[in-house]
User: Fold this.
Amino acid sequence: MSSKKDFLHLQKANTKNEMTLMNKLRKDNALKGKSLIGEYKNAFRSIKKRLIEDVQPGSDRENALSDIMDLLQSASIEGKRIPEIFPDGTDIFCDDLLEAMPIYTSESKHSMKTKKNILALFLSFLLVAVIASFAIWYFGIWGIHTKGISYFAGNEKFTYSGIPVDGEFSVLIDLSDPGSNIGKVLYDAEGCSIVVSHIDLQDVNGGGYRIGFRCHGKYSGNGALLISGSNYEAVTPQNYIITFTANMSAEYEGVLYESEIMGTDSLLNKDGDAFYFYIFPRIAFKNNEISITEKGTVLITVSDLTRNIWSRKI
Amino acid sequence: LVNRTQMYKGILEGCVIKILSMGSLFSQEILHALRTYGFEDMSEGTLFPLLLRLEKEGLFTTHKVRSSIGPDRKYYSLNENSQEELKRFTEVWTDFQEQVNRIMSAEAAKDE
Assistant:
């Protein structure tokens, strides 16, 4: 039992010694190889290529390469030309040389080729993964994918401009059936839209009729566009200020009311935000002009929307 | 048959062993000796694989010596195996030579 152990230990040590020796030879050869120039270097390269293709790695191959380098170095010093040293060419020289070398069998060559292919495939995958990771990091693809438009707001890689949208946009709201108004379109252009997303009724102290508009924008790796009731001006890197810009009026039974601002959802949704108004001002309830039991139709008109544009800096 | 390089292969191995029986030499000296004996078209490219082959067959012991004008010189020396090999080669070569000579002489006589 112990002799088997000793044998294994010895085998392991021999393999280790062989590896150490081979690595040393490789290092020495690499150093020596640098001293070859011109035709000597070219000849050595073609011989080395052939030996690497046909001879199993190990000290035999490295020793032969070392001796060939010595041979070429001596020839270079003596001024002997390559055709003098290899009159039949380096291919014939290699053929002769291979007779004394541990060459690959067809099976081992095939196995080596398979291993090489697997390695090449693995490296290709790795390369693609590295490039993809870099692209994801560089272009913020991950951030855009997870955060949507909010990724752009305050992002120093993007320029921002908030431009007022000209014009007014109207939608009819049926107070007798608030739920039926959900989905009505206030604005729809350039791939952006604003639709009625919320409408409810509170008591007078709660502000009465409340309406919400959901703004849907568009975005890609190069930037984003959002038509909204708010302006998202960048102030410092990673910070921005939201300014409510929209105004709303409600025309009901021949009377025009200035609606009161309720609030905004900021960029909570990946593709945009939302803004809310009290349809009628509190004063209208106080003056009994409006009650919380209205059943008519009100014309809602929204103006002063903002075109929020984020563009990748060049 | 007319390819001298192929014909030489076996014979050259014997010749190289014989040359080394006179003492340790490095490859350039072996090459020089071969050329001196008439193998004028011998080159390093022919000798190198031959030396490597014989070394791998265990017919040489080698050692390196530093050189002031180039890379280390690899010296080849005979060992017990090569002494035996030289004996065998000498016998085979003598027989072979005699046989070839007999044929050549007989055929030459016929031609006359």
In short: The mean pLDDT of chain B is 88. Strands of chain B lie at 25-26, 60-65, 73-78.
